[in-house]
Amino acid sequence: MGPDDIPLFGMLKSRLGYLTERQRVVAQNVANADTPGYRPSDLKPFSFQASLMSQGSGEAYRGGPVAPTSGVAMIATSNSHMGPSHAATAWRATTGADSETTLDGNAVSLEDQMLKMTDARMNYDAAITFYQKSLTMLRMAARKPNG
Asked: Is-contact 18 54, C-beta < 8 A?
């Protein structure tokens, strides 16, 4: 049994993967800040529900179908609820318009991209800290008692 078998660590791993991918997308946007006609992209926000749906299957990261494998499933209790076809995948790149577009059609705002990069970094640091604290707690629980 490894740490990934514990749902908390699996969700943290998924969150860290999302944040790594978001850093990559933002870096790509910054690298293309002078490319004529370039439109910046971003990822869908990370959702707890998508993480639960992908728990135990690596399909969400690879963009494949996501099936509930951890015993958690959505249940529609009313006809007005969205069906399973609207279930969120863990993440996919989405193209969005930033606040300004230059004459050559480039829509990358470096200020917005730096804010996104800072946000991703802060969330990554928080997830790493939570991961480390959880591992410390598991080690303490597994340690032989003194005396």
From this structure: no
pLDDT in tens, 67-107: 444 444 556 666 666 554 444 444 455 555 545 788 888 99
For the cut 50, the answer to whether the pLDDT of residue 110 exceeds it is yes
Domain ranges of the chain: 3-46+91-142
Residues with Cβ within 8 Å of 93's Cβ and at least 6 positions away in sequence, in order, are: 25, 41, 42, 43
Distance (Å, whole) CA 97 – CA 82: 27
Task: Judge residue 123's burial from the number of C-beta atoms within 10 Å of its C-beta, 0-12 exposed, 13-18 middle, 19 or more buried.
Answer: middle
pLDDT over 70 (residue 8): yes
